[in-house]
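Work Package 3 (structural annotation) set out to generate three-dimensional models for the target panel prioritized at the project kickoff. During this period the team completed the workflow that converts sequence records into discrete structure tokens, so that structures can be stored uniformly alongside our sequence database. As a representative example, we reproduce one entry of 749 residues exactly as it appears in the project archive.
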Amino acid sequence: MDGWRKDLPGWMERSSCAPGDVGLQEVLQEHKIILRMRCECVTEGSDETGSRTLLNTIYTDLYITEGQSEEVNTQHEVKQLERASRIQKHHDSAIRCHDIFKAFPDQDGVIRVVLTCGVAGVGKTFSVQKFTLDWAEGWENQDISVVLLLSFRELNLIRDEQHSLLSLLHVFHPTLQKIPAEQLAKCKLLFIFDGLDESRLSLDFSSSQLVSDVTQKSSVNVLLTNLIKGNLLPSALIWITTRPAAANQIPPSCVSRVTEVRGFTDTQKEEFFSRRFSDKELSIRIISYIKTCRSLHIMCGIPVFCWITATVLENMLTSEHRGELPKTMTDMYSHFLLVQKNRKNKKYHGGHETSPQELMEADREVLLKLGRLAFEHLEKGNIMFYQEDLEQCGLDVTEALVYSGVCTEIFKRESVIFQKSVYCFVHLSIQEFLAAVYMFHCFITRKSKVMKRFVGKEYRETSLEDFMEKAMKKSLSSENGHLDLFVRFLHGLTVEFNQRLLGGLLGQTENSPETIQRIITKLKEMNNDGISPNRSINIFYCLMEMNDLSFYQEIQSLLKSRKHLSVSNCSALSFMLQMSQKVLDELDLEKYNTSAGGRRRLLPAIRNCRKARLGSCMLEGAECEVVASALKSNPDLTELEISWITELADSHTKPVCEILESSITKVKDLRLSKTSWASLFSALKSKSSHLTQLDLTGTSLGDSGVKELCALKSNRLHLTKLNLGYNDLTESDVQQLKDLVADMVIYAK
């Protein structure tokens, strides 16, 4: 066992296992064959259909970049797609999945732990499978001796058991039982842990429990934390994939490289549809239609959503009962549910299509139970389910899921080890859609207990518009917007068209035009100063789901007449500018007839313009974060002029520094107080600084602040005014600063 202990010299210099170990090579070859069989076929949708496809025939290189923007951990995943859709055309920083452990020429040291983030369905698991398949077939990364593929959904099944790392490997890769630990120690190992967001383990990196020997038994979570921290097999390579919201479970100090999978580029979207259909005319029609619907086109960055879209549009464009093509997310998902129901009913019920009103009672019952599962676990943040989770919602695993006429295409069952199964919806957005269907049904049928759990104990039977208002407020109160898409679907379900599509699934709904208009009015009224610009955008998505585009006409009319724009009007205008497929040449806030609050609401539109002039708009903490975020997400932005950043707390210094250090920013007048001097002046030393006026009134500079300010002497600043009033400076401080800024005006009192 000594060969496996922590103090062993690393094997990084060796490209493979010892060549003389013939038996070892035979076993590893068998291991490769098993991995190849596991990874060479994939499914779109559910395994139940049997429609498994060779990975190499459908795989398209995904857009993967190094690094991850901070907002990825706090934004709803659909918003991240909207952000990624603007960055994707710049491929200079793209990384092939096969090169995930290869350092760039300017990087030093070994890349040992890689954390790969990406939204649900964007292709993280496909990337892992492609990496493993190409290794097993001898095409890529042959310096790695053993790839050990493990998924958190499998690890969850043994989370309460005690294991050593060696016995854990034997459980998931039985072939390796034939290799003594001493021989395996000679190999270069790569552990791949897929799906951290699906983990139900308690990964506690602050624990002092040390495991350094592969034969030492412990809990699974302790084994994993010690492996990732480097206490156990410190030379082993580790690759972890996760949805963004779970990425913070791994401390940054343990990670050598962070990458982000951003899905399909616009070109790859077209490749997907062209490859999927042998009928080229059909693929061209589908591609052309998707381009006309901005929100649908953005979602097609996710491979799974491309599959959903292809399924719906192929059915509608080749069917006699064509009808109006879906324009909103709710339309698309309602149609998808109907398409799957009809396909399965054909299979199980004699090949006859059923009308929307003929949802079978069995289907209806199971779908609502699935909706309950979706909703309850959406609030908990779970996307993987086990038999006990299904049973708690009254779902019969052996009968309902297999023989239901509809569920097997939207709900996925994967058989794994120990003859146990894990379940998931084929995509997070389907879970959110069914959760919305279930909640809408609960409102219609007056299930007060469910409603109270959702909107609060004070809930009383109320009107539809009041319920929608409460749901929207709950969504807006969420910092990361985890209920945003769920609430979009809720509003989309109020539309009569979607209620007809879903038949009796929702219950008896009789929404008058007056009710719908009151919901729309309340949505618009919610868009006020109390909501941040980034969060208010979901209000307009909800309006789009309700097919209400009146705000477009209202804004265009106001702009044409140059009338005053309210704060709400500016939020609507910002949304329109961000959603436009055309990049705005220049955004000049001074040109708009509005208040200071209105101008701040226009700031997110920086994400879709080439030049931005903020004029007299005073940036505070939240606004600085918006601008800093826009600088990262808009590759088209070539010039940004800022006149005034007002007083900020320490917590907002970072986005200010990011703004000041940007090569395209022109900050001319800066006012700050109570800030981190080291980080601020570090930013001011940037060669790109255009600062002419600096106001540090009442900032309690102290010795450290004066020292940092004097350090600017070596930098070519263009300051003409420096205000240091109410800083209680000593004569020595004033003298130092006078020597520094002889040609400037210093207000020292």
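The first helix runs from residue 22 to 39.
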